[in-house]
Amino acid sequence: KEARKLKMADTFVNQRKYADAMTLAKQVLVDEPDNVLAHIANGYGGYVLAVTTKNESGNAEAIQFAKKGIQLIESGKTQENWAPFKTKDDALGYLYYSVAYLERTSNPAEALNYFIKAAQFESDIKKNPQTYAFIAAAYENEYAKQSTEYQGKFAGKDETPESKLAVENINQIVDRVIDALARAVSVAGTDANSQASKAQWLARLTELYKFRNKSDAGLNEMIAGVMSKPLPPVP
């Protein structure tokens, strides 16, 4: 049993052979159902395989392992060494992000909450522009949905309390997109791929910011200071 745990840790942490590590982790969990590293290996490993192989058939299983890992860590279970992550918070950030990514299609509402939660921890995920790009995309989908509903129910009609409330709700969603895109732009890297994405995010951000504020005055200052402010919750 001890040899299997050591082999799992080496395969996951050092060799980064995620599929092999997941097989070993499942064997470890037969002996120790609350083994934190085994749940991390299965949850985070499942996320990595989904990203690298484009095969998401194991998403549901990986989600359950990642959620169990989160539950164990937040209930007080600890590790002497959090590798391959830097700290406990780094591990939690990646586990929340893994769940969010794996659920982004099957359960977008929960995925959004998990992306937001992932960004709360002092981890590399908090500095990853893709975290905020996913948050922005989720809000964009909700914005499109609510805008379509508004057009169907209220377009061309006199203003009513119900239509005013609908506009307020839509504006809240737009403000969330603006915040998320500002964060993505703020933490974007300097390499060519990052700069290409940054240009797209900035173009959409500028468009929405002008829509809400009638000009782009103050936009650069907002981008500069946005990471010092708490990430707003789902309205």
Describe this structure in words.
- It is a single chain.
- The chain has 235 residues and is an all-alpha fold.
- Helices cover 72% and strands 0% of the residues.
- The longest helix has 27 residues, at 161-187.
List keywords for this structure.
single chain, mainly alpha, about 240 residues, 10 helices
Short précis:
This protein is mainly α.
The number of helical elements comes to 10
CA-CA gap between termini? 48 Å
Shape: elongated
Mean pLDDT: 96
Helix content: over 70%
Count of extended strands: 0
Order of helices and strands: HHHHHHHHHH
Query: In this structure, how is the largest beta sheet organized?
Result: none
SSE topology:
Layout: H1 2-14, H2 18-31, H3 36-53, H4 59-74, H5 88-103, H6 108-118, H7 129-154, H8 161-187, H9 192-213, H10 219-225
Helix pairs in contact: 1-2, 1-3, 2-3, 3-4, 3-5, 4-5, 5-6, 6-7, 7-8, 8-9
